[in-house]
Structures are given as C-alpha cells and as structure tokens.
Amino acid sequence: MAFDLGNLLQQYLGGAANMNPNAATDDFDRVAQAAPRETVSQGVAGALRSDQTPPFPQMVSQLFGQSNPNQRAGMLNQILATLGPTVLAQLGNGGLGNLGNIFGGRTPTQVTPEQASQVSPEQVRELAEKAEQQNPSIVDRMSDFYADNPTLVKAIGGAALAIALGHMAQNMRKQ
Predict the structure, then answer these.
(1) Alpha helices in 83-135 (DSSP H)
(2) Which of 2, 34, 66, 135 is geometrically suited to a Cys-Cys bond with 155, CB 3.0 to 4.6 A?
(3) Residue 130: how many CB atoms within 10 A of its CB?
(4) How far is CA 110 from CA 56, 113, 122, 148, in A?
C-alpha cells in the first residue's frame, strides 16, 4: 500500500481539535520524510506561531532540553545569529544570566556543543524571547533548523504536531 501524503494531510485541514495526538506524532514522522523540506518548515513555523501552542520561547526552551549537544549548539547559533550586536555584547559582558562566562567573556560567534551543554533551557528561553522581540523572523529561522531535525520536533507534543500538520496541509493545498 503506497503512502498518500496529500490524503494524510487532508485529515489535518480542519484543525487539530479532534485529532489524536499519538496519531499526529506518527503522521508527522511520515510527512517529514515525504514532504518537501520547505513544507515541513512552514508547518513547524505555523505551530510555533499558533495561539493554540505555548509561546515560541517556551517551545524553543522545551526543544532545547530534549536536544543532543550538536542540536543544542545549532539552536543557539540560530538564535545568536538573529540577535543584534548590543545583545551579543551583553553576553560577552556577563549579561543574560552570566552566559558570557560560558563563552569565555567574549561575544560568541559560533557556539560549540561543549559550550551549548552548559546553557540551561531557561537561558535559551530568555535568549529566544529577546531574539523574537528584536527580530520576529527568528521563528522562521528556527523552523528551518527544525525541518532539518524533524525527530527533535516531536518533543513539542502531539497537539502542536497536529497544528503543524494542518499548516503543512494548507500550504500544500495552495501550491
């Protein structure tokens, strides 16, 4: 039996309210493997922006807590690339919860997995909050990162995945 991406996503067009969160987790796996990367990214962005999911900084913090050191470094690098020089200078001066100490008192340009393992999910939440305030496109940037790491996205939970699948279905229907 062949996998029908369109038919599967069609089930999510009506919204996530009556979808089974466990089914959404399995369906997201299948869709992430079959759908174009851009479609996955747009769906994740829809879930991260949704008023039916926790706020973006909280979700990023949750995903960070479930990530391996390489993924954590990648997430931090995405966030730091979005922050302006003023905020980065605060990091280098020991601001933002003493993150500067982790980065050796310098403004970070690239975070290593070792450095990322010293950062707490709460610190990431604060960074994501600042990044979103300064540049709302951070949501798209993080969604692109998560599209490259779809297994990690499952940590946002079945209800949020159902919302992501609904956005993917809408985007594919427009094409």
Answers:
(1) 85-92, 95-102, 113-116, 121-134
(2) 66
(3) 19
(4) 23, 10, 20, 19
**Measured between alpha carbons, how far is 15 from 55 in angstroms, rounded to an integer?**
19
Residues found in the chain: 175
Q: How far apart are CA 83 and CA 175, in angstroms?
A: 33
Helices then strands, counting H and E runs in the chain, come out as 12, 0
Q: Per-domain residue ranges for the chain?
A: 55-174
What is the Cα gyration radius of the chain?
17
pTM comes to 0.84
**pLDDT digit of tens for each residue in the chain (175 aa)?**
345 677 777 777 765 555 666 788 889 998 999 889 999 999 999 999 999 999 999 999 999 999 999 999 999 999 988 886 666 666 655 555 556 556 555 556 688 999 899 999 999 999 999 899 989 999 999 999 999 999 999 889 888 998 899 888 888 777 6
Task: Record the tokens describing residue 130, joined without a space.
Answer: 């600042």
| Rounded (10°) CA dihedral 107, 109, 114, 115 | 30
| Burial degree of 15 (CB within 10 A; 0-12, 13-18, 19+) | exposed
